[in-house]
Amino acid sequence: xxxxxxxxxxxxxxxxxxxxxxxxxxxxxxxxxxxxxxxxxxxxxxxxxxxxxxxxxxxxxxxxxxxxxxxxxxxxxxxxxxxxxxxxxxxxxxxxxxxxxxxxxxxxxxxxxxxxxxxxxxxxxxxxxxxxxxxxxxxxxxxxxxxxxxxxxxxxxxxxxxxxxxxxxxxxxxxxxxxxxxxxxxxxxxxxxxxxxxxxxxxxxxxxxxxxxxxxxxxxxxxxxxxxxxxxxxxxxxxxxxxxxxxxxxxxxxxxxxxxxxxxxxxxxxxxxxxxxxxxxxxxxxxxxxxxxxxxxxxxxxxxxxxxxxxxxxxxxxxxxxxxx
Length: 325
Fold this sequence. Notes:
The chain is α/β, with parallel strands linked by helices and 325 residues long. Helix content is 26%, strand content 26%. The strands form 3 sheets. It has a 9-stranded mixed beta sheet. Helix 3 crosses helix 4 and helix 4 runs parallel beside helix 7. The longest helix is centred in the first third of the chain and has 18 residues. The two termini are 24 Å apart.
């Protein structure tokens, strides 16, 4: 199993392996875990208090799914974020298996973009939400026997995805209108692939440097507060010859990513060629200089249905980036 590290200590330059019980031997913190499925979900967010509170909230949700409506309608930022992520991606990733079926984007392009060669080591899917990427990649022969880590900062989405992967069936929450939440049954047509679930911040991934064979990010790079830091983290995580499968609509939002940190604003030209240049070290000195593009599609449709009268349609730029040996 991949080693896990204490995020705050790693951020201070002390990469301390977590001991049994998720205890950091450097700072003494004992990190919480959510035990709702066949395996526990370690919660390693940079803020230990937020980690513990999230475990309590999601445990309550698993006991009484009706609390989701209160989260959605309330004013608590953490509850709002948990509800929003679960509602958006339960349908986006698995709505096709609901009864009746719900609108969901096609993720088959992930398998087409997947590399034929990878170094040994685990796969890490950052910003996975409910786990749709792992489901889309389930038939890739090269994943057999590899450890696959599903990583997201939203424990509600992870716990729901784990329940579906464990049992093959689950009640799926969705919004028929902007103010209503309904539930319908969803059932996978076959067994889900074996994966590990981890609640962590993509900007503080708790893995060792150069330990990962591939990283997958879909709609993440334009959805974090510091995209350049995320690029640096991914570059550091990957083994030589490792692969970053990156997809983004470049839908920058100042409330998420401060204007000065939006990578697109550094481009001398436009998207998508400019972003390909930036992610191969040709725009910002020292950023992504270890990557080359070996596969690219600049126009992949990605359609998210928020509710029956609100649909967000994006065009993803997808790149498969290989880290130099």
